[in-house]
């Protein structure tokens, strides 16, 4: 068998785009990237049909099949009103994918499924480990936990990777929102009583590819190193682009009521990741600087 056949779901999302970039350098591999148009995760028959066709093509090419599942219903607040739909996309569909891979009769097919810090209740005072009990407080968290359990129940070669506070140079995310607001407002308020680890999709994508190729199963945690608050994140963005960080004013969560409660503490312990022999993701401040540098936005450059 020569090389790997990759299937990237959620291909037009911020992580999906960086997964494709990470795989583009792997010349002997074959990469198939699908978005909602090609793979409607609310349609079980369609999901299974697409997976079977792709698995047959991978087998015919002599490559090992690996799915990187970056597709999800990520509208956290909307999920509170549309939990049934979110449960299909986040809960049932990963199970369908995992079942097709586990039932494949050719070479061992592997799944890397991306999950979230929202499976925890956010009340911890130390980083969450993979063995801590999930206790989601939102529809999004409940549906993502259902997906984790569906993947495990399928019994195939799979790894679930939880991450948090993901941002990218493209798409809709906290970094790009702060960059826009820095241009539009003389001052802004940002929550300062929620803690997490800002995680660059480029680092996460590279890590997911590493995890896919490593002999590890179960659940892992992967974020950039260190932790801050949303306010601290915003102030660092401002400072790096040459804006006054004091323009970002701290407020508490109660100042921004949302349909879905945000976790007060989202820091994930990376011990499971490094114990699996995977290289630690860089510190969040370093990755943010590299991201802004790639965007051509660093002050003085």
UniProtKB/TrEMBL annotation:
InterPro entries: dTDP_dehydrorham_reduct, NAD(P)-bd_dom_sf, RmlD-like-bd. GO terms for biological process: dTDP-rhamnose biosynthetic process. Coiled coil: none annotated. It holds the Pfam family RmlD_sub_bind. Gene3D superfamilies: NAD(P)-binding Rossmann-like Domain, UDP-galactose 4-epimerase, domain 1. GO terms for cellular component: cytosol. One of its GO terms (molecular function) is dTDP-4-dehydrorhamnose reductase activity. Pathway: Carbohydrate biosynthesis; dTDP-L-rhamnose biosynthesis. It comes from the Bacteria. Residues 7-294 form the RmlD-like substrate binding domain. Its EC number is 1.1.1.133. Keywords: NADP, Oxidoreductase. It is an enzyme of class 1 (oxidoreductase). Catalyzes the reduction of dTDP-6-deoxy-L-lyxo-4-hexulose to yield dTDP-L-rhamnose. Belongs to the dTDP-4-dehydrorhamnose reductase family. This is dTDP-4-dehydrorhamnose reductase.
